Amino acid sequence: MNSIASPSAQLTSDPQATRPEDDARLSAAQAALESRIGRSPHDVAALIELSTVMFQRGQLRASSQPLLLAATRLPRNVPLILSLVERLIATGEIVAARACLDLLAQAPEPPAELLAAQAHLRFVLGDIAMARELMARAIQAGANSPGELHMYAMLLQFSGRIDEAHAVLERCLAQWPTFGDAAMVLANLRKQLPESNRLAWLREQLRQMPATGTSPERDFVRAEFEYACFKTLDDLGRHEEAWSALSRCNALMHALNPYRANVEEEVVDALANMPVTSTPPCAPPPGPVPIFVVGMPRSGTTLLDRILTSHSQVASAGEIIDFWRQLHWVADVTPARSEGLLEVIRRSDRINYRELGERYLKQTQWRAQGKAWYVDKLPANIQMVAFIRRALPHAPILHMVRDPMDTCFSNYKAMFGNISPYSYDLAALAHYFGQYTRLARHWNAAMPGAVLDVPYAGLVQQTEATVRGILDFCGLPVEEACFRPERNTSPVATPSAAQVRETIHARSLGQWRTYARQLEPLRLSLEARLGEPVG
């Protein structure tokens, strides 16, 4: 499985920093900074720089201490505080980061750029309502860059305010017609109609773009416009043209983001060979209880989140990477894509799982918003199942299971950006799904009953019976609201924000069959990898 990615200000370690000459340089820098701080204990810039150097030396746990100290000595320096917040988030110190942001929120008459910066960081933390309010104020105060308008439109979309998001994106493209992010989100906002679409305009923009291969940045923008064409053509029922546009988009993205099949296999091998120790039953710690929703992206995890959070006792934390962050912190392994997770696995027998659970809860329970339960919906946490069971044995884990072809096609047509290399090539997609299935089967065999498999088909076709089983597994009383998630008005930060506000339906079952001929190589490859009939 590929390592967890996020839109957050996530730090990654530099493999080159492990070379002896680099470590000697960093060691000298650390000593100099420590001496400087000894002379000036309130030098917040030096504390942030010290944390950065320690992080680069692989001292993740220790690197958070200068940041926590800096958070108690905040200067009247907004850029410095924003930098501190970014670092606190990246090292998993979410509570301290929120406290710094709360202080910034008290600034009288803040300029547009400060409001926009705060909005971005609130979004990173998953606080959609606050981020939307801050960005609205920033726009009103004069913020008008393409990135700011795009973020505001997304926040409106996540809040279900589709018409307002549409107007913001139209305004953005009127000023920056080659801004691919806005073109792609606009196409995704609603179904495109024969009498209302931008297909001719999209194709004209593509015609004027430089040829492919001129630069990665330009190729990425071209891929976004090809994706917008695909979405429009697909909505219009022009499927041959739509597939051609999607193929061009994904060929560009695959070239920009090569899939590392050997690394995916290595990660699953390591997880499958990791000793699984059952944690004896114990009383749950005080405070709200997390419910983990895992699986493949585009398998129905957002729908399940909306069903659960329609319950009066359950809040949504969104797609957060907090468990992954805290696991790396407790293991003292700096994030480094899959290589970092492999090192965590090697150290798994030395991890203090009680500390991991306590730290995760400390940094996330605020997300429950006063309710007794909160949903941590990150599909990639399928990698974390054994760690979650040991650190938080009282936390339910729900695994969304959807038809392989529907899941894979939904991934292939999703355009995730640069974070999901497996999704842009049919052979890579089949390989990745095979590794995901292998891992899910291993967890079920190694820890029977620890995870509840939730069939997507059951969720949309036998909703009441399936939801009752889910609530029973979680220890929640049945509430009628869970059968009508379309009435859930809370924000949802996902590309399917509009779809999940609809009444539960089964229209997505078998959706891949529209492109059955083009997807036949994928179907055959999945059958070979899964060892069972597919489709």
TrEMBL record:
Q: Which domain of life is it from?
A: Bacteria
Q: Ranges of Polar residues compositional bias? A: 1-16
| Annotated keywords | Transferase
Claim: Transferase is one of the keywords in the record = yes
Q: Which InterPro entries match?
A: P-loop_NTPase, TPR-like_helical_dom_sf, TPST-like
What are the start and end residues of every segment in region (Disordered)? 1-23
Per the record, the coiled-coil ranges are none
**Matches recorded under PANTHER family:** PROTEIN-TYROSINE SULFOTRANSFERASE, PROTEIN-TYROSINE SULFOTRANSFERASE 2
Q: What is this protein called?
A: Sulfotransferase
